[in-house]
Amino acid sequence: MFLSVFDMFKVGIGPSSSHTMGPMVAASRFLDRLRTAPFAVAGVKASLHGSLAFTGVGHATDRATILGLAGFVPETYDRDKAEAALTRIKDSKTVSPDGLPVLRFDPESDLTFDFGPNLPGHANGMILSATDPQGDVILQETYYSVGGGFVLTEAELAAGKDTDEGAPVTYPFKSAAEMLEMAKASGLSIAQMKRANEMSRRSAGDLDAGIQRLWDVMNDCIDRGLENDGILPGGLSVKRRAKGIHEKLLAERGMNLSPPHTINDWMSVYAMAVNEENAAGGQVVTAPTNGAAGVVPATLRYYLDHVPGASTRRIPDFLLTAAAIGGLVKYNASISGAEAGCQAEVGSASAMAAAGLCAVLGGTPEQIENAAEIALEHHLGMTCDPVKGLVQVPCIERNGLGAIKAVSAASLALRGDGTHFVPLDSAIETMRQTGADMHEKYKETSLGGLAVNIPNC
Predict the structure, then answer these.
(1) CA–CA separation, 284 vs 221, rounded Å?
(2) DSSP character for 253?
(3) Which residues, in sequence order, are CB contacts of 160 under 8 Å at separation 6+?
(4) Partner of 123 for a Cys bridge, out of 51, 269, 316, 406, CB 3.0 to 4.6 A?
(5) pLDDT tens digits, 76-116
(6) How many angstroms separate the CA atoms of 232 and 277, rounded?
(7) List of domains in the chain
(8) Whether this model's pTM surpasses 0.90
(9) Which one, of 249, 306, 251, lies nearest residue 273 by Cα?
(10) Is there a contact between 191 and 314 (Cβ–Cβ < 8 Å)?
(11) Which ranges of 160-203 does DSSP label H, i.e. alpha helix?
């Protein structure tokens, strides 16, 4: 199945791609069904299940679902308009999406959290229903938010992965081994093969403009995070730190006061800036998820600002290579913390960033695959245990360490010739198996790990 660079990287809102963006997208899809329904709809209801229920409030899943039923979508989300809409909905107990009549919807009674067993398809499940004037359900659909903002209906999930109906792509690799074979046979880089695949679905102009927008949103997110301070919402009283750290790093520049390892602080502060913005509900790019949104942009910003000879012309190569690796992880395992723990989020992001950096530093396809494998291998087993269900602790710092690992992995791979002991495909399969074996309490439920071992939380 072909996964575009615009599937792996989506412009959206924080704090979670699975728990915020996904439910909003699901609600939007449900409205589309209602707009073509052959019967009159008078009201809507929603129930959240599994991880969406357990950490829903901390991830703003309830807000996202309400706003999605009101017609909001992540791509064009406006925070001020959203706040005004939430107030109207609370007061009127109705939603008014475009193309539909005013629909009954009382957030207090029509949005429920089901803390029972997960729905059968995935840990992130939700059921959306439409009712008639008497309040009887006349249409119902189950949606699964499967990570990175991807949403599937129950039928789509049951159909399996091979549901891509687009034009055939030139290099249809589904594994790292196939990717390397095609690169060797064609003489092309991973980025060049990925570009050829993308251009089977869109023009070169649209591709380049889309990639540039992705980087602009990523970079703007870093800059906002470096400029904003204060306390993050949610009740943990977590203080934004990126601005203060950045100011200290700027003050130390040129004073010969900083040890060489200070470069790690630069990588961390770029990533923390993104994830503080994400935690505050700001605009971010899934990379491949919101919880891991800081790793790829931090690594790319490190390349542009700190590596001699870096060029903005290489940004597309970085992101296309990263997307190729992310697509392999998603297709063969998971990028969902609720499905496989944080190894599937920050681990995947670190592998993507390592591959992208290795590519722009001149790595061969074999070295790039090695870089991705090193980064992923050393995140295996990482749990997803957000304190109070918020994408803050340990998520914000974890992105910084993911970026540092990505740079280290790329550097180690470039020191070799691309031959190595553990193939990337084996690391991905190990991650999938580890996620399947991992206890549910360590997969984005806030029922284990740090989430239950922090006093007063």
Answers:
(1) 6
(2) T
(3) none
(4) 51
(5) 998 899 999 999 999 999 999 999 999 999 999 999 999 99
(6) 9
(7) 16-159 (3.30.1330.90), 176-200+202-452 (1.10.4100)
(8) yes
(9) 249
(10) no
(11) 176-186, 190-198
